[in-house]
Inverse folding.
């Protein structure tokens, strides 16, 4: 990857040249990744990892290049001669390389390299592990592992509406089972946006911005300790450009909710017979074989007017749950058929189909709302 490889030389100098002289002071060997036959020692914070050059080089272009001139291929798992890395400190006969990464992230990366990536269910703990792996995979050019981590994250931050709905089903189940806000089921969208910017994974941004836009500004910028975006779960806030994009997107989202409520009246009856009283009267004789025509246009129109008034009060005036989530609003409006139109299957079906079309249209517009490009 061009961006990562362009900085490889500087990273290589950093991890070799900045090894401290007091390498034995207050350092701890990692309980799992300290192999007696390891050929290089990595230091992250105050933790030491003795691992194999061949394992690092196998999937990492960065490490492959770093060690390629150190020794003949036949001796790939032998300790690197001191002369080959003249500026590196030695520790128990192996070169000691200082990694400017957290010990936790490096341990997760090594586990993925040795045992294969075993990711979890995209909850907050899983995100902490996967995001650390992704950062290091990006930094040290482990392209295969990078792609695997991104594919895993896209399950929770998808590009398709069907996958988004599946994600939302998991959040609802979590809320029912735990009694906690469904936002706790997945990591903070602030963290996801910052990660996507850091390692350049733009495909995570539309769903992350949309998720964040569903919170009120107070919840975003001054969250309480017990809220999904609360301080305990937060990385530093968004950059200025992302805050601007979020603000523009939230405004577009609110307009979409208003448009949905206004447009609901036009979904009240099938298009072919929306204004035809004669056709509706004639349909009484055909209901046994067809339910595509409204049987009670005047009553259905009145019902729709009442529903529009109720939705306006609920979502626009009272700002009840879902008021900033047009996908949710469209879904709820489409389901009103079961309660209000049980005697008119034509209008019920028309409303349901209208809601499905609106949700698809909204989903396609999300990237442009937040100025994320095509």
């Amino acid at each position: 990857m061009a961006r990562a490889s362009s900085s490889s030389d500087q990273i290589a100098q950093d991890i070799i040249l900045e090894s401290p002289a007091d390498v034995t002071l207050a350092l701890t060997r990692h309980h799992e990744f300290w192999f007696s036959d390891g050929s290089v020692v990595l230091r992250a914070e105050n933790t030491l990892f003795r691992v194999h050059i061949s394992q690092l080089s196998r999937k990492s272009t960065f490490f492959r290049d770093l060690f390629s001139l150190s020794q003949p291929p036949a001796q790939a798992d032998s300790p690197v001669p001191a002369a080959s890395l003249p500026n590196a400190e030695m520790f128990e006969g192996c070169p000691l390389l200082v990694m400017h990464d957290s010990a936790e992230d490096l341990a997760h990366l090594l586990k993925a390299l040795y045992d294969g990536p075993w990711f979890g269910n995209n909850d907050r703990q899983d995100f902490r592990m996967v995001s650390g792996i992704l950062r290091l995979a990006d930094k040290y050019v482990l392209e295969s592992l990078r792609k695997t981590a991104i594919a895993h994250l896209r399950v929770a931050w998808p590009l398709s509406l069907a996958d988004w709905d599946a994600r939302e089903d998991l959040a609802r189940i979590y809320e029912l089972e735990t009694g906690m806000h469904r936002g706790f089921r997945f990591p903070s969208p602030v963290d996801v946006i910052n990660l996507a910017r850091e390692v350049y994974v733009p495909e995570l941004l539309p769903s992350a911005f949309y998720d964040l836009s569903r919170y009120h500004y107070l919840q975003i910028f001054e969250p309480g300790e017990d809220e999904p975006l609360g301080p305990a779960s937060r990385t530093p806030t968004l950059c200025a450009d992302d805050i601007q994009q979020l603000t523009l997107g939230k405004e577009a989202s609110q307009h979409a909710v208003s448009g949905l409520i206004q447009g609901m009246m036009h979904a009240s009856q099938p298009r072919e017979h929306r204004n035809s009283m004669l056709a509706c009267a004639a349909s009484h004789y055909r209901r046994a074989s067809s339910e595509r025509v409204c049987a009670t246009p005047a009553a259905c129109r009145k019902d729709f007017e009442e529903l529009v008034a109720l939705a306006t009060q609920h979502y626009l005036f009272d700002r009840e749950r879902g008021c900033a989530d047009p996908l949710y609003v469209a879904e709820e409006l489409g389901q009103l058929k079961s309660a209000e139109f049980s005697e008119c299957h034509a209008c019920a079906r028309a409303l349901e189909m209208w809601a499905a079309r609106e949700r698809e249209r909204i989903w396609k517009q999300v990237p442009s709302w937040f100025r994320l490009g095509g």
Q: What stands out?
A: Strands lie at 28-34, 40-44, 47-51, 89-91, 94-99. The two ends are 22 Å apart (CA to CA).
